[in-house]
Specification:
The protein is about 55% helix and about 10% strand. It contains 24 helices and ten strands.
Length: about 750
């Protein structure tokens, strides 16, 4: 059989399968020297080859690649339907392409194909990185660096400003101090209607705090009381003590009218009536109902209203908490600041001030950046839809086994949090529009943004947790690397030991916590509750403690508690905890070093480099062959001479015809001197471009060694094939042979 005939048959058979074959060759299609189990150095490395023996008939139909196991039945059914005419060929390919969009390591058969596993994981990682960037933009797009300074300005103004008698909110210690603050620093901070030179800020009476922050509506004062005789006075003191007011609880709330009897300040209103929400204070949790008084639009009117409350003993022995609520808006930075100042009056007497300042962004779409975030939100919704379909497919394939992996559970958590975030975003937008509409219609009412600010804060917290889990999820996609699996393998192996040790640790830890609470709870704030004792002991482990407070509380048992706790917990138990992890890590590292090297990401990159380099070299060789055919020096080159020269070098006839016709403008089957010149120039330009591309590829990969190896492989392959005809068949199966001059 002639060489040209052999080439033509090989070309016609492999032309339609060469690109598909590169992607579907089995796991034996790569000989990699980094494997411990690779062939000896005497064997030449082949960038890609057919794993079948070269002595087999090269014209037999190659075995069709198998589909992943979960889809074999689907593929058979689809092919059967296609043969019967029920499913058009294009629909089958569309269905196959759509299904490939959700191809993961759990939906593809990657157990016996390490290369497919690495490639699938890498694709998942790249898609997930895009999702992670999008969710980061969304999360940080809802925050602003100005939020901290806005909060600080408001806290300095309302918490630290003092009156002539040096009473600030933070220094309130009695009911008298409360009235001194509300009638002095509070009203001075709330109502800004004039410039520093006493000129009016404008024609309206609205307040602009610090000339920039618009006071929304009017502030509201609210209090909660407990009933008289809600506790029992001992018989020995009944003659001297009249009335008993217990600590606050919702069951013991006083809901009866008192004082002037008329007006909202003297009538009880439920939480539903006020559309309020509960508050978690320093001492306990308080309901959203109570007795309330809305201040006025001007400072003078508010002073008069507060004076009426003070003179009629609005605060008395039954009062357990007083709230001051108001909201401001800064249009310069598009931020709301919702403030709640709380003064708790415990059953012990005195007052405990606390505050809650929430700076939130409720109006989303104002600036150009906000509209960019809109695009990110749309992309985010598309990603969530994509991952929902992906998890449904994985759950359909693996059933209940799907939930045995912690990464799958983490996927469900991220998706659920994201769906809740989308739902709340829609609710928040509608609710803000409703509240702003009410406020614009009647600017003299109380603007209750407390509920919305609370849920906006929870929404931000949820997004923060979701983003945290999203970052942790990266470990799922980099687990194919040995170095990256050391952490997870170490924690998984030592989990039982740590669990057993944790039981011993917390027995000792909680014993010391109870001891500290009973010894110092009445004198040291950090030990005043059992929960505070637990956090205080964690702080002692980290070196943050106040030894003098412990020593002053109990000069004998205090030092003994401190020394023994540091010795047993810090020097003994904590170091045992670290020793367990260190020993397990050493074992895992040793086992990984003794394991057979599997296909890594770097190997995939090297193999891709080899394929690309071979394509470029084959193009370069074809150009050199054509240049040789033009070197006869005749003024006119006939097509037959051109064709015979290139056919001797192994090129297909249809390729030769296409190349000749490209420059034979007059169609006379002869290249004159001008046409040959144009062909030479065109070939030279392509040769120079290919040389530059090969050089750049080598630099980017730092791979002079790889290039030398590839050259040796080509030479070795030529000699190992046994004949020139078989070598031509092998060359024709290399990728990129068809478009040798068209590109």
């Amino acid at each position: 059989m002639s060489s040209s005939h052999l080439n033509n048959r090989a070309e016609s058979h492999f032309q339609t399968q060469e690109e598909h074959e590169l992607e579907t060759l089995g796991k034996r299609a790569w000989d990699n020297p980094v494997y411990n189990g690779s062939p000896s150095s005497s064997l030449k490395i082949r960038a890609i080859y057919n794993p079948k023996s070269v002595l087999e008939n090269p014209y037999e139909t190659p075995e069709k690649p198998r589909d992943p196991l979960p889809y074999q039945e689907e593929r058979k059914a689809a092919e059967g339907a296609q043969k019967k005419g029920f499913v058009p060929g294009c629909c089958f390919h569309v269905f196959k392409g759509i299904r490939g969009l959700w191809g993961t390591t759990l939906t593809e058969n990657t157990a016996e194909n390490r290369e497919l596993y690495v490639k699938t994981t890498l694709r998942e990682l790249l898609v997930y990185i895009v999702f992670l960037v999008d969710i980061c933009l969304l999360t940080y797009g809802m925050t602003s660096s100005n939020a901290y300074y806005y909060t600080k300005v408001m806290s300095d103004l309302f918490l630290q400003s003092s009156s002539d008698n040096k009473i600030s909110f933070q220094s309130i210690g009695s009911m008298a101090d409360f009235w001194a603050y509300t009638q002095g620093p509070l009203l001075e901070s709330l109502y800004w209607t004039k410039w520093y030179n006493n000129e009016s800020l404008g024609q309206n009476t609205q307040s602009y705090i610090y000339y920039e922050n618009f006071l929304l509506g009017v502030p509201r004062l609210r209090q909660l009381k407990v009933q008289n005789n809600s506790c029992i006075v001992h018989e020995d003191f009944k003659d001297d003590i009249f009335g008993c007011y217990d600590v606050y609880s919702e069951e013991k709330e006083d809901r009866s009218p008192f004082g002037l009897l008329n007006g909202t300040a003297w009538q009880y209103h439920t939480e539903e009536d006020l559309d309020g929400s509960s508050h978690w204070g320093r001492l306990t949790s308080y309901s959203g109902g109570g007795y309330y008084e809305d201040l006025r639009m001007t400072r003078e009117e508010s002073i008069a209203a507060l004076q009426v409350l003070k003179e009629n003993l609005w605060l008395d022995r039954g009062t357990r908490a007083a709230f001051i609520d108001f909201s401001v808006y800064n249009a310069n930075i598009n931020l709301f600041c919702v403030l709640r100042l709380v003064v708790e009056f415990p059953a012990t007497g005195g007052a405990i001030p606390s505050w809650q300042i929430r700076t939130v962004k409720l109006l989303r779409y104002v600036s150009t950046w906000d509209f960019f975030i809109v695009a990110c939100e749309i992309i985010f919704c598309v990603f969530i839809f994509y991952y929902v379909i992906e998890e449904i497919l994985e759950l359909h394939i693996h059933k209940l086994r799907y939930f045995t992996s912690i990464w799958n559970i983490l996927d469900i958590v991220v998706i659920l949090l994201s769906i809740v975030a989308i739902g709340f975003h829609i609710f928040r937008t509608m609710e803000v529009n409703r509240l702003m509409g009410q406020l614009l219609k009647n600017p003299s009412i109380y603007a209750d943004f407390e509920f919305l600010a609370f849920w906006q804060t929870q929404y931000n917290n949820m997004n923060a947790v979701n983003l945290f889990f999203a970052w942790i999820k990266i470990f799922k996609y980099i687990s194919f690397n040995k170095t990256m699996t050391q952490l997870s393998s170490t924690l998984a192996r030592c989990a039982k030991d740590i669990l057993g040790f944790a039981i011993m640790f917390f027995i000792v830890f909680f014993a010391y916590a109870q001891l500290g609470y009973l010894l110092f709870g009445t004198q040291v704030e950090n030990f005043s509750t059992f929960v505070k004792c637990i956090f205080t002991q964690f702080r002692i482990i980290l070196g943050d403690f106040d030894y003098n407070a412990i020593d002053n509380a109990n000069r004998i048992l205090g030092p003994i508690y401190f020394v023994t706790y540091v010795f047993f917990v810090f020097f003994v138990l904590l170091n045992m905890f670290l020793a367990i992890i260190n020993d397990t890590y050493s074992e895992v590292k040793e086992e990984l070093s003794n394991q057979k090297n599997e296909l890594q990401l770097s190997d995939i990159l090297k193999q891709g480099y080899n394929k690309t380099l071979m394509r470029l070299k084959l193009k370069k060789d074809r150009i050199s062959d054509v240049q040789k055919a033009l070197q006869k020096g005749t003024k006119e080159l006939e097509f037959e001479d051109f064709k015979n020269s290139l056919r001797e070098l192994g090129h297909a006839e249809h390729e030769i015809t296409a190349a000749f016709a490209k420059f034979d403008k007059d169609g006379n089957q002869i290249l004159d001197e001008e046409e040959q010149k144009r062909m030479r120039n065109d070939l030279e330009e392509k040769r120079v471009a290919l040389n530059a591309e090969i050089e750049n590829l080598g630099k980017s990969f730092r791979g002079n060694r790889l290039e030398e190896t590839l050259v040796e492989n080509n030479q070795g392959n030529k000699s190992s094939l046994g004949s020139e005809e078989e070598f031509h068949v092998w060359v024709l199966r290399a990728p990129g042979q068809r478009a040798w001059l068209s590109s």
